[in-house]
Structure formats: structure tokens, C-alpha cells
Amino acid sequence: MLSRTGNLFALLPGPATGEIFEELLRLELPAGRVWIERIVSSPFPEPVLYDQPQSEWVILLQGEARLWVAGEERMLVSGDYLFIPAHTPHRVVETSAEPQCIWLAVHLEGGGS
Questions:
Q1: What is the domain partition of the chain in residue ranges?
Q2: Which fold has domain 29-109?
């Protein structure tokens, strides 16, 4: 496998609204598919309600954010992480402008619980 390198804080897009998703790595494993993405949030999240078929582990690398997860609000600060099981409704309610929110998300399809 060819090594890929990069920097999560380099070449940050500045979305006016919503979020920008950048896939960093995708693997097909015997247990299922795994992909990792960098997410950069604007200070104006779109009211998208996610109900994904895959589980997601996410860490907030920079900034502050308020999420709604299955009826509960959660405040996250830099370094906080959260596991969201498949088919758990969730959305981003609020994100900081300075510093902008940078996330790392690991998606687990096919049994990541």
C-alpha cells in the first residue's frame, strides 16, 4: 500500500454555510468498509438531520460545537469525541466561527459497534 501523508490543518476551505467533507482514506476490510474524512464547518450549519446506515466516530480537533443526537444536545470542545451508532438521528446545531471547527470522522460500515 502506498503511504499517503498530509496535514489536517493545511489548505482549510472556508465554507460560507454548512460543511465541507474531504475523504482522506477508504479501506475495504473483511468486516466492512471504513473511511476517514476531514470535515470543516462554517459558523452557519445547515439544519440537516443525518440518519446514516454506517456508524461514525468523530473527534472535534478545533473549535466548539453543539450537536443534537437522538433527542439530546451535546456540547463539544477541542479534543472531545463521540461515537454515533448507525441509524442514530443527529445534526449539527451550532459551530464556532473562531476558531473554525475542524473534525475527523471515521465511518464504519458493516458492523462497527
A1: 29-109
A2: Jelly Rolls (2.60.120)
Among candidate residues 3, 16, 12, the one with its CA nearest the CA of residue 102: 12
Rounded Cα gap, residues 19 and 27, in angstroms: 23
pLDDT along the chain (113 residues), means of 10: 78 88 93 94 93 97 97 97 97 95 95 49
CA distance 99 to 107: 25
Partners of 95 in the beta sheet? 65
Q: Under a CB-based contact definition with an 8 Å cutoff, are residues 70 and 89 in contact?
A: yes
pTM score over 0.70: yes
Looking at residue 68, what is its pLDDT? 97
Full 3-state SS string of 6-72: CCCCCCCCCCCCCEEEEEEEEEEECCEEEEEEEEEECCCCCCCCECCCCEEEEEEEECEEEEEECCE
Query: Using an 8 Å Cβ cutoff, are 53 and 86 in contact?
Result: yes
Residue located via cell numbers 466561527? 97
